[in-house]
Specification:
This protein is an alpha/beta fold and 366 residues long. Helix content is 23%, strand content 31%. The protein contains 10 helices and 18 strands. The structure holds flavin-adenine dinucleotide and FE2/S2 (inorganic) cluster (FES).
């Protein structure tokens, strides 16, 4: 892992130095570029998790405006390449004037461990502005929140905003391995004391209560008809909660899920064969030609060719892999991220893009 740079923040590419008077178009363009942000402070939350608070310069304030539940994408140098990772904002845009993400170590994970071990105040990190659809809507319905481990990050932001900005009642079920691994314990205790009538927090500990099962979810959901549910945590945790909520009659449209892990099945994609299409990629300032198999996505082919383009969910919902199609035609298999206007401008999700012509060129944002 190489050192993060300590350069000063650079002016916005594609927009004026001050965004205060920028047009919506200029802001939208700047939201598709990485910006150098200075780390204001690093806070050790637990033995396995640290929060990173970024200083947002005044000229980027509007570009980095966010909704509770959204995430930042960090570009981190690793072994001579850039790797990209999404981290949800744990701060609330309505109660805190800061952009805080919290990174929990993943066993053998390259970036989560590096960030926990090395990042310090004053370092500069390249960051893509906030994105994501796992956000608090304005239906006014009471909230039933399920978080497991680091899945608390977008959920605590939603809790803080809902309590401060609305009169919605909130029940949070928060699962962790043990007491010591509970992230944000003091902050949650304070919220519970302050909003006692509207906030109920149920801590589940694996070592004491076992993994959450359908019976437990059913108990938590009783008496909460008409609620909206937000779920974020390990795969099996989310599957159990989602399945049980739907079986209990909660409409699918009222259940929101944020997946931190990739859903891609490497073996399934790697099995493609057939004619090859040439695709040119502009990545980290260099042009590279790759060959894409029939039915294969641009992202998968790039990875198979030894490149490390930005990616995270690999399912079309995080936006981390987006790039501009400047030539040729692709078919997007799934798009739960880009707006119609962005698609019109040529933005594509490379994890979902299958080339349909031989002359495709995609440019990743810099
Ligand atoms: C929308 C979104 C929001 C997220 N928010 C958060 C958040 O708020 N907090 C948080 O902590 N995380 C969050 N994540 C997860 C985060 O983006 C990273 O996936 C996580 O930190 C792991 O990254 P890593 O580089 O440490 O792990 P990686 O190096 O990518 O490793 C992940 C796993 O793959 C294995 N692995 C590593 N290298 C290889 C290899 N070469 N071949 C095969 N397997 C390998 C590792 O053993 C590990 O189990 C979020 C993800 C998404 C999509
Ligand atoms: S990697 Fe998440 S949308 Fe492509």
């Amino acid at each position: 892992m190489s050192e993060t740079t300590t350069r000063e923040g650079t002016p916005i590419e594609g927009g004026p130095t001050s965004m205060a008077a920028a047009s919506p178009d200029e802001i939208a363009r700047a939201r598709h570029h990485y910006h150098d942000l200075r780390v204001g402070r690093v806070v050790r939350e637990t033995a396995d998790a640290s929060s990173i608070v970024f200083d947002i310069p005044a000229e980027l304030a509007r570009v980095f405006e966010y909704e509770s539940g959204q995430f930042l994408t960090l570009q981190v140098p690793h072994a001579g390449k850039a790797l990209y990772r999404c981290y949800s904002l744990a701060s609330s845009p309505v109660v805190e004037n800061e952009h805080k993400v919290t990174v929990k170590r993943v066993a053998d994970g390259r970036i989560s461990n590096w960030l926990n071990d090395n990042l310090k105040a004053g370092d500069i990190v390249k960051v893509l502005p906030p994105a994501g659809h796992f956000v608090l809507g304005d239906t006014g319905a009471d909230l039933l929140l399920f978080a497991g481990g680091s899945g608390i990050t977008p959920v605590i932001s939603i809790v803080k905003t809902a309590l401060a900005n609305t009169s919605r009642r909130v029940q949070l079920v928060y699962a962790n391995r043990d007491e010591a691994s509970i992230i944000f314990r003091p902050e949650l205790d304070e919220l519970a004391a302050r909003y006692g009538d509207r906030l109920r927090i149920v801590h589940r500990l694996d070592v004491r209560d076992g993994f959450i099962d359908e019976a437990a979810v059913r108990r938590h959901v009783e008496g909460h008809s008409g609620c909206e549910a937000y779920i974020c945590g390990p795969g099996p945790f989310m599957d159990t909660v989602e399945r049980t909520l739907l079986a209990a009659g909660m409409p699918a449209a009222s259940v929101y899920i944020e997946r931190f892990a990739s859903l891609a099945d490497e073996d399934e994609v790697a099995g493609h064969s057939g004619p090859l299409r040439k695709v040119e990629l502009s990545l980290d300032g260099a042009d590279q030609a790759i060959e894409v198999r029939e039915g294969e996505t641009v992202l998968h082919a790039a990875k198979r060719s030894g490149l490390e383009p930005p990616s995270s969910c690999e399912s079309g919902f995080c936006g981390c892999c987006m790039a501009k199609l400047v030539r040729g035609k692709v078919k997007m298999l799934n798009n739960d991220f880009l707006s119609a206007a962005e698609v019109e401008e040529g933005w594509v999700l490379t994890c979902q893009s299958v080339p349909e012509t031989d002359d495709c060129k995609v440019e990743y944002p810099e």
